[in-house]
Design brief:
The N and C termini lie far apart (about 35 Å). The protein contains four helices and seven strands. About 35% of the residues lie in helices and about 40% in strands. The chain has one domain (about 1-150): START domain (Alpha-D-Glucose-1,6-Bisphosphate, Chain A, domain 4), CATH 3.30.530. It is an alpha+beta fold. Strand 3 and strand 4 form a beta hairpin. The chain is globular, with a radius of gyration of 16 Å.
Length: about 160
């Protein structure tokens, strides 16, 4: 099951890439939502590949996930792969400079079931796919808008 969306941001590609790779911000956001996040290594990119062990409640059970930054091509691409039980996932963020002060961000999420239980869960997600797509687009748009607003306010340089 794949979700993808594109947004244009009124900010230079270097600024957008720096915000996309500020993983500490994403870690704190996950902690605020009740997840437990632990980096498996304390170094940061580009010194080493970053991996996270994440635990979060979902559908009444505690789930565990391992996420790994597998590709980082500044300032064009970020690829994070994850595994959780019978599910595999891949988040790809591609950045394209439309002009010196404008960047297009393309974010895609691909979820692949690896066993029967995961297939049933993904199948149930397909029933609500339009609603999930709308929420996905809204969150990416909100993230892009936040970067744009902070850049316009002079908080990002």
């Amino acid at each position: 099951m794949k979700f993808s969306t594109k947004e244009d941001i009124e900010a230079p590609i270097d600024v957008v890439f720096r915000e996309m790779t500020d993983f500490a911000v994403f870690e704190r956001a996950a902690l605020r939502r009740g997840a437990q996040v632990q980096r498996s290594n304390e170094k940061s990119y580009p010194d080493t590949i970053i991996t996270w062990d994440i635990s979060f409640p979902f559908r009444g059970r505690q789930r565990n996930m391992r996420a790994e930054l597998t590709e980082c091509d500044p300032p064009n691409r970020v690829l994070v792969k994850s595994t959780s039980g019978g599910l595999g996932g891949e988040v790809v963020v591609d950045l394209v400079a439309l002009s010196l002060g404008r960047t297009r961000i393309s974010v895609s999420l691909d979820i692949k079931p690896k066993n029967l239980t995961a297939r049933v869960m993904v199948q149930s997600m397909r029933i609500a796919k339009n609603k999930l797509k709308a929420r996905y687009r809204m969150r990416v748009a909100r993230f892009a808008s936040d970067i744009e607003d902070r850049y316009k306010d002079g908080l990002l340089t």
